[in-house]
Design goal:
By secondary structure, the protein is of the alpha+beta class. It has a domain at 36-144: Immunoglobulins (Immunoglobulin-like). The protein has three helices and eight strands, in the order H-E-E-E-E-E-E-E-E-H-H. It has helices spanning 2-26, 147-155, 157-168, and strands at 36-42, 46-53, 60-70, 80-86, 93-97, 108-114, 118-127, 132-141. The strands form two sheets. Strands 1-2-3-6 form a four-stranded antiparallel β-sheet, with no helix packed on it. The chain has a four-stranded antiparallel β-sheet with strand order 5-4-7-8, with no helix packed on it. A hairpin with a 3-residue loop joins strand 1 (36-42) and strand 2 (46-53). Helix 1 packs antiparallel against helix 3 (157-168). It starts with a helix and ends with a helix. The relative contact order is 0.19.
Length: 171
């Protein structure tokens, strides 16, 4: 009898863990700190890795982050980094990447509002006292999702928890 009680208790913990894992995996907002690596470039003194988030990029907020390191020993370097986003049609936007905007203290970041779908060009320029490191890449921006489709993963745990509770407490 004691074994049956312990098995039921273990089943409850497993269902809770399962719900947490499934909801985390399905959420589009459960992203890593940096996002997707878009570019990596280096010269004799510096290496620069560029990340964007979210993935896939849709009309709305775009986070562009840069990790700048000394090439000799991979220690972090805080330089002046500028991002220039050029939309498919319209004027380019220029913003400085800062540590205040970044999600981690290892990076410098900027947030942009992309307002139209299509292929956007992103140019990143890092300046040192006497040299400049540049990279550029294209980001394909998809149309925005309807608001309900964007939020559906947050509503999924409720019926899932109720279903698992009903299974665990059936007579």
């Amino acid at each position: 009898m004691q074994l049956l009680i312990e098995l039921k208790r273990l089943w409850r913990y497993q269902t809770h863990l399962l719900v947490i894992v499934i909801s985390g995996c399905l959420s589009p907002h459960a992203l890593g700190d940096a996002g997707l690596v878009r570019a990596h470039t280096a010269n004799d003194e510096l290496t620069m890795t560029i990340f964007t988030s979210p993935t896939p990029v849709r009309v709305g907020l775009l986070d562009v982050s840069a990790l700048l390191q000394w090439a000799a020993d991979d220690t972090l370097y805080w330089g002046d980094i500028e991002a220039i986003l050029t939309p498919p049609s319209g004027e380019p936007m220029t913003v400085s990447l800062t540590r205040d905007t970044a999600t981690t203290n290892f990076m410098q970041a900027a947030k942009f509002t992309v307002d139209q779908p299509g292929s956007w060009n992103v140019a990143i320029i890092a300046r040192n006292n006497d040299q400049e490191l540049q990279t550029a890449f294209d980001v394909l921006v998809a149309p925005a999702l309807p608001r309900l489709l964007d939020l559906w993963p947050w509503f999924l745990p409720v019926p899932l928890v109720l279903a698992l509770w009903a299974i665990a407490h059936r007579p």
